[in-house]
Automatic annotation (TrEMBL):
UniProt lineage: Bacteria, Pseudomonadati, Myxococcota, Polyangia, Nannocystales
Protein name as annotated: Xaa-Pro aminopeptidase
GO biological process, one term: proteolysis
Species of provenance: Enhygromyxa salina
Record GO cellular component, one term: cytosol
EC code: 3.4.11.9
Encoding gene, per UniProt annotation: pepP_1
Assigned protein family: Belongs to the peptidase M24B family.
Length: 468
């Protein structure tokens, strides 16, 4: 990203805006947001534009908004500030920004309130940061502008949300190219992490090696990295544990390239060699993932792929004696969720969990609702796949003490009928958590694993550990 100018062709943004205008049939106004302060106002987090704004303009600028109305697009942005040239260096002129975004014209953001007085009332989507959301709501007379009011979409804003989902869900060629670059950088980061791993180091050392690989490409992470020997902690945020021979290291790290996300997880043995029990569970998880990827194709229902992955996992656990009974019946009852609690994955794009700001409006097809069953209720995506969609496939196996505690409401039915063999499970105590995740593009003929260059067969993974 150079001086806030887009890196994709202007034609791509123009085409996206035209698609939104055609679907909505009414004007829309989307805001870029502002940088958020950390511990005092002048010490801010790195700015990242709102994803809907970024999708339509590619412009990495604060305090901006884009008005889309038929064939007319107006980018409202701050006028050049002479102080910026002193403190931050020269930035692009308005003519440069207009050419790069393909908008019809650019106006001063200070003119926006007056412009809206005479313009057709636009639809909008609530900004993520509270400062912009409050100003936006007041300017556009939305009920959610009032403190404490719920952010509920009215009919016109809901229509814009649906139009954005329809457009962003099917990636165009420019978006796919960005995802490929993010995937390549993500693969390189994981390769660097495996190479750096040696017993006696700390989780933070491996995190540093992985994120350094991204920084060297002038990228950052798409989300907070997970690098931990406690793979049973699904969203671990600590990096202070030592790593020792016998540990498995789970790394969930993804690149952010101009806002476009990569999202990959690999699990590898710190010593460079899986124990027999670790390899057994690793192979079960890998089989689950490969079976799920094979089913990724146009027309496939993502919920069915999730359940298919769960079935492979359940069969493997039955083969090892950890679960007892008919695998299909166990999955129907949710027994596999004792060890595979989360959903199989999610859409990926400008957000690592793409469009999750719109909630289940994005992830669930009209007429579909989340299941109430434990495990299945955490599924983020229940749509029929279409060519151009990008999803993650990330089954796992975790021994979460809070879930597996004897006598808990969750495990009680399976303890009572003998479906869960705790004695057998205890033999796998050195497997805290394993997850294997790839980014997968749905194609007309099936799928393409964007992160396929990263090894995941057990022998390959072992060979990559500690060679740096």
């Amino acid at each position: 990203m150079s001086h806030g100018l887009p890196t994709q062709p202007a034609e791509a943004f123009t085409k996206r805006r035209r698609a939104i205008a055609a679907q909505l049939g009414a004007p829309a106004l989307l805001f870029s947001g502002v940088a958020r302060p950390q511990n005092y106002p002048a010490n801010i987090y790195p700015f990242r534009p709102d994803s809907h704004f970024l999708y339509l303009t590619g412009a990495w600028i604060e305090h901006a908004a884009v008005f889309v109305d038929g064939a007319r697009d107006i980018l409202f942005m701050p006028a050049p500030d002479p102080d910026d040239a002193v403190w931050h260096g020269p930035g692009p002129g308005w003519a440069d920004m207009q050419r790069a975004t393909g908008v019809s014209e650019i106006r001063d953001i200070e003119q926006l309130p007056q412009f809206l007085e005479s313009a057709p009332a636009p639809a909008t989507l609530p900004a993520v940061d509270s400062t912009t959301r409050f100003r936006q709501g007041r300017m556009l007379k939305r009920s959610w502008a009032e403190p404490g009011a719920p952010t509920e979409l009215d009919e016109r804003d809901a229509a814009l949300g649906d139009a954005m989902v329809a457009s962003r869900m099917i990636h165009d060629a420019a978006a796919i190219e960005q995802l490929r670059v993010a995937a390549q950088a993500t693969v390189a980061a994981h390769t660097a992490g495996m190479a750096a791993t040696k017993p006696g180091m700390r989780e933070s050392d491996i995190r540093a090696a992985m994120e350094a690989s991204l920084l060297a490409r002038d990228m950052t992470t798409a989300y907070g990295s997970i690098v931990t020997v406690h793979g049973e902690i699904l969203h671990s945020r600590g990096y202070d544990n030592p790593i020792a021979a016998g540990d498995l290291l789970l790394a969930d790290v993804g690149a952010s390239h101009c806002g476009w996300a990569g999202d990959v997880t690999r699990t590898w043995p710190v010593s460079g060699k899986f124990s027999a029990t670790q390899r057994t569970i690793y192979e079960i998880v890998l089989a689950s993932q490969l079976a799920a990827i094979e089913q990724v194709k146009p027309g496939a229902r993502y919920r069915d792929i999730h359940l298919a992955a769960g079935l492979v996992l359940a069969r493997g656990l039955v083969d090892e004696g950890i679960l007892k009974g008919d695998p299909e019946g166990l999955v129907e009852r949710g027994a596999h969720a004792l060890f595979f609690v989360h959903g199989l994955g999610h859409m990926i794009g400008l957000d690592v969990h793409d469009m999750e700001d719109l909630g289940d409006r994005a992830g669930y097809a009209p007429g579909r609702q989340r299941s109430s069953q434990f495990g299945l209720c955490f599924l983020r995506l229940d749509r029929d796949l279409q060519a151009g969609m990008a999803v993650t496939i990330e089954p796992g196996f975790y021994q979460v003490p809070a879930l597996l505690e004897p006598g808990s409401q969750l495990t009680a039915p399976f303890d009572a009928d003998g479906s869960l063999d705790r004695t057998k499970l205890a033999q796998f105590a050195d497997v805290r958590g394993i997850r294997i995740e790839d980014d997968v593009l749905v194609t007309a003929g099936g799928n393409e694993v964007l992160t396929r260059a990263l090894a995941k067969q057990a022998d390959q993974v072992e060979a990559m550990v500690g060679f740096g």
